[in-house]
What we know:
By secondary structure, the chain is mostly loops. It is built from 2 helices and 2 strands. The longest helix has 6 residues, at about 25-30.
Amino acid sequence: MGKFIKLSEPEMRAVREPVRHDSAIEHVAGSARYVDDMPEPQGLLHLGVHGADIACGKIRKIDLDAVRAAPGVVAVLTAEDIPGKNDLAPVTEGDPVFSDGEIIFRGQ
């Protein structure tokens, strides 16, 4: 049998103790800075995602010509554009990044 080394656990000071958020005073005073309060950097690229309008169905075709032709559109991505596996499930498979033929929930 190998030796077991007991590692010391970090001190748990915050458990069951009130801890002030680092910007609590700013939040209460109304002076906290939020992301929406910050100016956008020059050349910032925005992302727009469109989800399914239905809860269940099959994708027969997608016509994205009008989207690609819209002013300011840099790229339009679909499941076909993913070079690897179209799945972002952290543990098991079955959570596609983009629907690739079947819609299994509204907003997918």
